[in-house]
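Good morning C.,

I know you're traveling, so I'll keep this short. The sequence:
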Amino acid sequence: MLYNAARNHRIATNLKKSKTSAPRPGSNSALIKRLVTEHVRPHGGRIGLAMFFMAVTALTTAAHVRLLEPAIDLVIVGQDKTMLWLIPVVVVAIAFVDSVATYGQSVLMAIVGQRIIGDIQNRLYAHLVRADLAFMHEHHTGKLTSIFVYDTSLLRDALSRALTGLVKDFLTALFLIGVMFMMDWQLTLGTLIVLPLVALFVRKIGKRMKKASTAGQIETGRLNALLTETFEGARLIKAYGMERYETGRVADAVERRLVPLFKAVRIRAGASPITGLLAGIAVALAFFYGGWKSGTGALTAGQFAAFIAALLASYRPLKSLANLNASLHEGLAAAERVFDLIDTPPQVAEKPDAEPLPIYKGEIHFDNVTFSYTGDAAALDNVCLTVPAGQTVALVGPSGAGKSTVLNLIPRFYDAERGAVRIDGMDVRDATTDSLRNAIALVSQETTLFDDTVRANIAYGRPDATNDELIAAAKAAAAHDFILELPNGYDTVVGESGTKLSGGQRQRVAIARAMLRNAPILLLDEATSSLDSESEQQIQGALRSLIKGRTTLVIAHRLSTVKEADCIHVMDKGRVVESGTHQELLVRGGLYARLHALQFSEDPQPLAAAAHTGD
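The tokens, ready to paste straight into the viewer:
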């Protein structure tokens, strides 16, 4: 009930992007600069040490290749006995240094990559959990989960590969090219003629990869959204025999996701063979020109072998750099989606000069409040009403009258477009969010329980409560007896959304949670709707005790539950059309009296006739 109004309307107000000084997502340079500034730089120490190890690894690779010249010229050709044992010792020493450096950079980069993504996920969740309900209803849970898990994983892989590739692979290729220059600079220049072609190809691959990756991430989000809906609606799917239909929908979503993923696979796979072809051309030129120079005596056998080895060894890091470009653009596409969420400002935000809400009495007053979800039809139209301190006020009326919207505005789930909601004379928009919501306890028809113990769910709004206080709240909510009958009592895990409990049991746990919170303002939105008659009678007694001395606003469709309210406001089409006590409204003969007559009609003939005729 509390959120139904938002779910029944599309949020039409565009969420504007925040205008921060940080680089905005869009261009690759802006994304890279932002990632480095906000998330990579804090780990500079570990990254610097890892880069040192990468440089050592690159040097050892070049050193192994460089040893080929003396190994061939001095040992094989020159039969130098000293070099026969010295070179193997040097090879082992280089291998040992390479192993230590490789281990060091691998561990450090893995830690840094996971830490960076952990920081981004924490930042993203902190933003999402503080986002207003309009934002949450505009973005499907499955899509948000996809960005939080899938996109950040792509970003992690891209960061790890980028930091490793840009240092280790680049330095390895650079050092190997240096070895080639040492052997023969003319031959080296001749073989490097293909590098501009490689660079041009890599740039083109990167642009195509980012486009395909973005499409793949969007389709992954849509698939996750569909899966979330079907899993949550499993009962309805089975009840209506729609398993085959939903299987087809998911299959279509999977196929749509595979299209851009296959395209990305083809693009990434094309990088290696084309780079390999260009490298093969370079090797062929080297063999032809190098072989000719070796035949003339201008190049020794050892120098020629070392040159070819360096050229072949440089193929691997150059290939990695080509693949890195594709992975980097895939990660940048993910970063763009992540930062787009982080940069979306909440429509309901705490003012910089907000002050703690002082609760003197707890009076709630709506001062000419107007609000709409769509920007067109008003959910509330110039509403004025007061909930006096310590009294119980009920809101009744047909569906869509604006009752739930009134409740939404009190804890600032949404903000009024015009007018003001005041508590003890203070506009709720001027109060700090924590102080405002700490003063309110909410029990909704849509009971929310977490996959945790009964104890944790009751203590959710007041985790520092003692065990005696928690049990007292459960007893007051008529929940203690059934809790003791559970397998582990208060330590029983209730399952996802409390699926291991019945609807009435879930509702009583929620009421116990509100009782334990002991807030001065109580909001009840169809709080007993899921209970059977016996349990409802028990809860009604508990609620009478709970609301005593508290400012209580009640929404109810069953008018029998609000007869004892100090005042009843009847709402219709976003306006308060009647106000008074139960008896006063019945005597007046208006909308309340008509609703009461419909609910308590004792004439069974219309229903019986409809059942008989099949209407």
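Safe travels,
E.
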